[in-house]
Amino acid sequence: MKKELLISVIFLLIGINASYSQSNGNVNMKVEEQQQAHYTGGDNAFYKYVYSHLAYPTCVKGKYINDNVSISFDVMPDSTLQNFVVLKDVECNIAQTIIDIIRPLKFAPSIQNGTKVKENVMYSFPIRIKN
């Protein structure tokens, strides 16, 4: 009987020690926060903003253009946008008009391991043009 009680107490102590070690390890673990750079209102809000501010150049008035304009840009750690690159444009340099619209916007920067990433992040947005 004493032997069984002693074995039970040993297993109980081992279990408590393992449980304490695991919980202690979790407390000391650094929480790794990850986030991709994004427009703070979300993609729908981004597109809504662009289309509500888009005034087509005179050279496309009356034309039907069903195509994409693709623009990439860097989202900097301070939330500003830089290094715009036109990947695909349509008539009358509409891509530049769109760049002028989105240049002043702020995006949430990319975060890795709980800190803002110092590297530039490239984003591309195809934008549908129907006039």
Distance between the termini: 90 Å
Order of helices and strands: HEEHEEHEEEE
Beta content comes to 25-35%
* Biggest sheet details: 3 strands, antiparallel
CATH architecture of the largest domain: 2-Layer Sandwich
Please estimate the helix content: 25-40%
Average pLDDT score:
74
Number of helices: 3
Q: Uncertain regions: pLDDT < 50 for 5+ in a row?
A: 5-30
Let me know the number of strands: 8
Shape: elongated
What is the CATH superfamily classification of the largest domain?
Answer: TonB
Rg over CA atoms, rounded to whole Å, is 27 Å
Show the helix and strand layout:
Elements: H1 2-28, E1 34-35, E2 38-39, H2 43-53, E3 67-75, E4 81-88, H3 94-102, E5 107-108, E6 111-112, E7 115-116, E8 121-129
Antiparallel strand pairs: 1-6, 2-5, 3-4, 3-8, 6-7
Task: Describe the model.
The strands form three sheets. This protein has a three-stranded antiparallel beta sheet with strand order 1-6-7, with no helix packed on it. Strands 4-3-8 form a three-stranded antiparallel beta sheet, with helices on one face. Strands 2-5 form a two-stranded antiparallel sheet. With 131 residues, the protein is α+β, with helices and mostly antiparallel strands. The protein is elongated, with a radius of gyration of 27 Å. The chain folds into two domains: 30 residues; 96 residues, TolA/TonB C-terminal domain, CATH 3.30.2420.10. The relative contact order is 0.21. It contains three helices and eight strands. Helix content is 36%, strand content 27%.
